[in-house]
Each structure stands twice: as C-alpha cells, then as structure tokens.
Write a structure and sequence with these properties.
There is one protein chain. By secondary structure, the chain is of the alpha/beta class. The protein has a single domain, classed as Rossmann fold (3-Layer(aba) Sandwich). Helices cover about 40% and strands about 20% of the residues. A seven-stranded parallel sheet has the order 3-2-1-4-5-6-10, with helices on both faces. A three-stranded mixed sheet has the order 7-9-11. It is globular and about 60 Å long. The two termini are about 35 Å apart. The C terminus is likely disordered. The structure holds nicotinamide-adenine-dinucleotide (NAD) and 2'deoxy-thymidine-5'-diphospho-alpha-D-glucose. The site of 2'deoxy-thymidine-5'-diphospho-alpha-D-glucose has 19 residues, from α6 and β8.
C-alpha cells in the first residue's frame, strides 16, 4: 500500500523545506503539492525535488472546492491519504493592510480542505497553525496548549478561525485532526518580507534596516528544519484531536537579531532605522514545547547560534534566487506556464 501525502502550500517557505525533507526521509511516499502560487509561492524552492518519481505539483486554491477535489484525484486510490495543511496567507503586515484575503485563504480554505478531506476518508489531517493564536505574553511565562486563544492581528485571528474549524471537525465528526502551533521560523526560502531575510537582503545592499518601534519585541526562533521534523513526528505519532506546541527556547529581541546579522555581514549599525511601530504589535512570544518533547520525543537539533549564521550564509550564496524573488521575475514564468500569476481568491 502506498502512503500518500497531500501537502497544501508546499511552494512556500516551510512547505518547500518540508517536501525536501520528506523526499529524503520517506522516499517511498507519494507527495502531491497543491499550491495557488500566490506572491509567496515559488516553485524554484522545489527544483531539487522536481525529478522525484513520487512528487507531483497541482496548481490550485484551497478556497475553491473543485481545485481541492482535483488535488485529491491526483492522489490516486491505491493507498492511505493524509493531509498536511500549510497553505495560508502568512504575513501580519499584509493582514493589517487588508484582512479579507486572510479570511478567504485561511478560514474558507481550511473548511474546504476539511470538507473534501472527510469526503475522501483521509487518514490524518494535520493543520499547521501558529503560536500567534495565543496573543502576546508579558515579560515572563510561556504559551502552553492550554493557554487561552487571544489573537491580536487579522492574520492571527484568521488562524484562530481555522484552528476552531479543525477542532470542530474532530469533535463533531470524529475526523482525525492534529494541530501544531509553532513559533517564528527562519532558514532557506523564506520570503524576504519577513524580518530575517529582509534584514539580510537590505544590509548587503547597504539599504536602511526598518526596525519597528523600540525593537525590543521578543520572538522565539526555530530553525525551519526543526519545525519540519516536528510536523512529521506529530503526523506519525500524534493523538487525533490534540494540539502540539513547537518551539526551541530561543528568545531574542528583534534589535539583537538585526545586530547579529550586521556583525556577520560586517556592516555598520548606522543602517538601523527605527520606524513607526506595527499597529497592535505583540510584545513577546515564547513556547513551552514540553508536550511534544515528553509524548513524542521530539527536540530541536539546532540552536540559534548554529543556525542563524548558516541561514545568513544560505542567503548570501543564493543571490539569484533573492534577486528574482525581490524583483518578482519568477512570477512571469507562472503567467506563461499557468496563464495567470495570481490566485483566484
Ligand atoms: P508562506 O507565505 O511562505 O507560504 C504560504 C504558501 O501557501 C505559498 O506557497 C502560497 O502560494 C500558498 N497559498 C496561499 N494561499 C493559498 C491558497 N488560497 N490556496 C493554495 N495555496 C495558497 O508561509 P510559511 O511561512 O511557509 O507558513 C506556512 C504555514 O505555517 C502557514 O499556515 C503559517 O500560518 C504557518 N506558520 C508559519 C510560521 C513562520 O514563522 N513562518 C510559524 C508558525 C506557523
Ligand atoms: O510566531 C509565528 C509567526 O511568525 C508566523 O505565524 C507568521 O506567519 C510569521 O510571519 C511570523 O510572524 P511575525 O510577525 O513574528 O514575523 P515577522 O518576520 O513579520 O516579524 C518578526 C518581528 O520583527 C516582529 O516583532 C516585527 C518585527 N519587524 C518585522 C519586519 C518585517 C521589524 O521590526 N521590521 C520589519 O521590517
């Protein structure tokens, strides 16, 4: 029997790292990657897996039921199908500019995925959520799986909505769902609108580095490969209906990260430019990942001291990737290949 995994959002940052890991670690699995190829989806992130016999890409929008049905058709009927659902609008600042695309992709898209997945008898449905659903912490304490949900941005509110729909599918329909809530990721293929790749890209061009407010907001950073390993661990061993927090106790204020990047690049701190704060900016995130460590034996492999320099090196070595992403050139290929370069939501 073939194990088949339908991955949504596999052309994005974490999804592409996840597929790359799967091809190496579960070479006999069939992997269907369904992605709408929004501005954040980039098939160049997957060139190293394109030739893999079990891998197939399907362009489709999770908010359109027919697209989801097409992706399931590509999964075939000779084995067990599970779903790992990454597809989402993911950038807080864009959600502040306009929340509707977030409701469409994250809320409507997730319900669509749940409905079609139930209709197809999916074996396990893993929903990739975020620590941002818990809101903001004070100076002490950690988010546990029992922390109340208190989202503060349209992005995190839409992720809360999707989490609640996944929870409801388990309780109402006994559908085997799993939810993961991870802290901030960093690593290869992250779209350079997010803090770390943005600072690297700007610093190397001697451009101003925008730091919101006082730069003392704290995030808990996890190397993307550790997140991917945790997701696979929950998919294979997690208890249906449960939530698993993922994080690695790497708490740093934003300004410290910016300074570390400048140091490694040998660039002056005078590039730092304090700008207007993000509206509703969450002050601190910190994850208690005790449950996944105790119950499933997962622990992160990388510390920030190891993986931040490695990540900076990766961006320095991928100049062409960075230039094409920054200029949007990669989207011209989609227009040619698929007739449209925009998602249909
Ligand atoms: P990303 O923005 O890099 O990638 C999102 C992918 O989803 C893109 O390939 C995009 O084309 C696709 N997509 C968007 N809307 C779609 C739609 N309607 N239909 C099909 N595909 C669509 O995001 P990411 O950082 O890789 O995050 C992936 C998931 O992980 C998200 O659900 C996010 O909430 C969650 N998450 C991210 C982080 C982080 O630090 N980046 C941390 C925890 C959880
Ligand atoms: O915590 C998990 C979340 O992490 C994910 O759910 C989101 O998808 C992901 O985007 C990320 O959200 P953040 O808002 O924390 O990430 P971002 O990289 O946008 O910002 C990190 C911190 O840096 C935040 O405090 C805002 C600040 N920042 C960000 C940018 C882009 C700046 O000071 N300047 C900037 O230019």
């Amino acid at each position: 029997m073939t194990n088949t995994l339908l991955v949504t959002g596999g052309a994005g940052f974490i999804g592409s790292n996840f597929i790359e890991m799967l091809v190496a670690d579960r070479p006999d699995w069939r992997i269907i990657n369904m992605d709408a190829l929004t501005y954040a989806g980039n098939l160049e992130n997957l060139t190293q897996v394109e030739g893999h016999p079990g891998y197939q890409f399907v362009k489709g929008d999770v908010a359109i039921r027919e697209d989801v049905a097409r992706a399931f058709d590509a999964c075939g009927s000779d084995g067990q199908v599970s779903v790992v659902h990454f597809a989402a609008e993911s950038h807080v600042d864009r959600s502040i500019a306009g929340g509707l695309p977030f409701v469409m992709a994250n809320v409507v898209g997730t319900q669509n995925m749940l409905d079609e997945s139930r209709a197809r008898g999916v074996h396990r449905f893993l929903h990739v959520s975020t620590d941002e659903v818990y809101g903001s912490l004070g100076k002490t304490g950690f988010f546990t799986e029992e922390t109340n949900l208190a989202p503060n941005s349209p992005y995190s509110a839409s992720k809360c909505g999707s989490d609640m729909l996944v929870r409801a599918a388990f309780h109402t329909h006994d559908f085997p769902t799993l939810i993961t809530r991870c802290s901030n990721n960093y690593g290869p293929y992250q779209f350079p609108e997010k803090l770390i790749p943005l600072i690297i890209a700007n610093a190397r061009e001697n451009k101003p580095l925008p730091v919101y407010g006082d730069g003392m907001q704290i995030r808990d950073w996890l190397y993307v490969q550790d997140h991917c390993e945790a997701i696979l661990c929950v998919l294979e061993g997690g208890k249906p209906g449960d939530v698993y927090n993922i994080g690695g106790h790497n708490e740093y204020p934003n300004i410290e990260i910016v300074k570390r990047i400048l140091k490694q690049l040998d660039k002056p701190e005078s590039l730092i430019t304090y700008v207007k704060d993000r509206p509703g900016h969450d002050r601190r995130y910190a994850i208690d990942a005790g449950k996944i460590e105790r119950e499933l034996g997962w622990t992160p492999r990388y510390t920030f001291e190891q993986a931040l320099p490695k990540t900076i090196e990766w961006y320095l070595s991928q100049d062409e990737w960075l230039q094409r992403v920054r200029s949007g050139t990669y989207r011209e290929y989609y227009a040619e290949q698929y007739g449209s370069d925009t998602p249909s939501v």
